[in-house]
């Protein structure tokens, strides 16, 4: 490949994308504002946990096809893959996208493709064009598109290639140019649309998941009230040929499902009724879980005359990764600690944490009076626990 690609943002999406493209022969100029991240990558190492990513990055760096910097450079294609958090009140914050857009202005030339991969509120790709115009770029001579990432943490390197992709350009020409690029490395189908539809598609995918998880979480709360085993209930109900209830949890985390529905609610207002209620149910489930643990701890103290040691099993937002973004498990652990409870924090995918000590899971099980399963990490499956230990399982890993 003779094309040079500048990837802005070397996090959970940007780094896998950059390293994959480098291994396909593209020359990659990676950009991250954190110098330590740049240094780690340029050593051929990784700063996040993702299966196979270390091999891709090491190969990309050793081949000379990928180098990381803190500033952009001239390129044929610019890919923006920076975070899109929200402000208080669940207002979308696209400041990182706007800053990334401004950072590439000095390096844009005629014929460039500018791709936004960050999950964004509808209309963000149009704002990229607006920023570029305001900075003096003739946007009629470049191609601007949105192509949202659609990967599952833990399977990113495979799904970047195998999953279908949605490409929406600001013009039909931009769509066609961007589709042509993605077809060079995507085995799945590359689907064409316009930018706003592509933006809404990603938000819709994650809102669909959020709504269905909310149903499962609400069921778990009701089953607790009725004295029913929710895991058995779901197993039985899912034997119906047209029913597929998802797995309850301690809440919903991650930068996608826990965040993206709010982008729709913020823009859609009162017309986004189900999506808003689902978000509220999943947020409530986390608070409900905290109260459940606190009540169990209080009962233990009354019965035993001493403060319970509570093992919080898992801090990541989903199984078998180290990603803590919007994690309900981390939030629960923090809240329990702030309430003065004696917590043994367990996260097998993280070696150390700056807020509190991480305890090895086997050691935590030995010490704990109450074991709270927050994340269904593979290490927690089939472990043996004494009958006298109290167990609260919010994720169905210890059934």
Classified in CATH, the superfamily of the largest domain is: NAD(P)-binding Rossmann-like Domain
CA distance, first residue to last residue: 51 Å
CATH fold category name of the largest domain: Rossmann fold
Q: How much β-strand is present in the residues?
A: 5-15%
Q: Helical content, roughly?
A: 40-55%
Count of helical stretches? 13
What would you call the shape? globular
User: Which regions have little confidence, pLDDT < 50, spanning 5+ residues?
Assistant: none
C-alpha Rg (nearest Å)? 23 Å
H and E order? EHEHHEEEEHEHEHEHEHHHHEHEHEE
Sheet with most strands: strand arrangement? 3-2-1-4-7-8-9-10
Just give the CATH class of the largest domain.
Answer: Alpha Beta
The main sheet comes to: 8 strands, mixed
Q: Tell me how many strands there are.
A: 14
What does this structure look like?
The protein is of the alpha/beta class and 399 residues long. The protein has two domains: 4-193, Rossmann fold; 249-393, NAD(P)-binding Rossmann-like Domain (Rossmann fold), CATH 3.40.50. The chain has 13 helices and 14 strands. It has helices at residues 14-23, 35-42, 53-62, 95-104, 124-134, 156-162, 172-182, 195-226, 230-237, 260-268, 273-304, 328-338, 361-367; strands spanning 4-8, 27-31, 66-69, 77-80, 86-87, 91-92, 113-116, 143-146, 165-169, 190-194, 309-313, 342-346, 370-373, 390-393. The strands form three sheets. Strands 3-2-1-4-7-8-9-10 form an eight-stranded mixed beta sheet, with helices on both faces. It has a four-stranded parallel beta sheet with strand order 12-11-13-14, sandwiched between helices. The longest helix has 32 residues, at 195-226. The radius of gyration is 23 Å and the shape is globular. The termini are far apart.
């Amino acid at each position: 490949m003779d094309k040079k690609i500048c990837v802005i943002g070397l996090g959970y999406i940007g780094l896998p994308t950059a390293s994959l493209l480098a291994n396909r022969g593209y020359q990659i100029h990676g950009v991250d504002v954190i110098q330590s991240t740049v240094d780690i990558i340029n050593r051929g190492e990784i700063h996040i946990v993702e299966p196979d990513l270390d091999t891709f990055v090491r190969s990309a760096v050793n081949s000379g096809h990928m180098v990381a910097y803190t500033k952009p450079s001239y390129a044929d294609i610019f890919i923006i893959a920076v975070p899109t958090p929200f402000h208080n009140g669940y207002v979308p914050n696209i400041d990182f996208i706007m800053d990334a857009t401004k950072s590439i202005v000095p390096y844009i030339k005629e014929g460039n493709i500018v791709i936004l991969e960050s999950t964004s509120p509808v209309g963000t790709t149009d704002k990229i064009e607006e920023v570029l115009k305001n900075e003096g770029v003739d946007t009629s001579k470049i191609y601007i598109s949105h192509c949202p990432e659609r990967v599952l943490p833990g399977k990113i390197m495979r799904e970047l290639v195998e999953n279908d992709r949605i490409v929406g350009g600001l013009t039909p020409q931009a769509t066609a140019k961007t589709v042509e690029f993605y077809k060079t490395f995507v085995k799945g189908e590359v689907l064409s649309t316009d930018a706003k539809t592509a933006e809404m598609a990603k938000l819709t995918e994650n809102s669909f998941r959020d709504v269905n998880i909310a149903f499962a979480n609400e069921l778990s709360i009701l089953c607790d009230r009725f004295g029913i085993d929710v895991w058995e209930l779901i197993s039985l109900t899912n034997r119906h040929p047209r029913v597929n209830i998802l797995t309850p949890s301690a809440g919903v985390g991650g930068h996608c499902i826990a965040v993206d529905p709010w982008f729709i609610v913020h823009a859609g207002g009162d017309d986004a009724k189900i999506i808003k209620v689902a978000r509220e149910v999943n947020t409530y489930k986390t608070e409900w879980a905290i109260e459940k643990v606190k009540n169990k701890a209080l009962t233990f103290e009354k019965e035993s005359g001493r403060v319970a040691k509570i093992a919080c099993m898992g801090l990541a937002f989903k199984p078998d990764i180290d990603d803590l973004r919007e994690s309900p498990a981390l939030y629960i652990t923090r809240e329990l600690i702030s309430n003065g409870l004696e917590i043994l924090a367990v996260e097998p995918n993280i070696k150390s944490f700056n807020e509190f000590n991480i305890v090895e899971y086997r050691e935590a099980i030995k010490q704990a009076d109450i074991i709270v399963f927050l994340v269904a990490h593979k290490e927690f499956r089939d472990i043996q626990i004494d009958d006298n230990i109290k167990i609260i399982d919010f994720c169905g890993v210890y059934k």
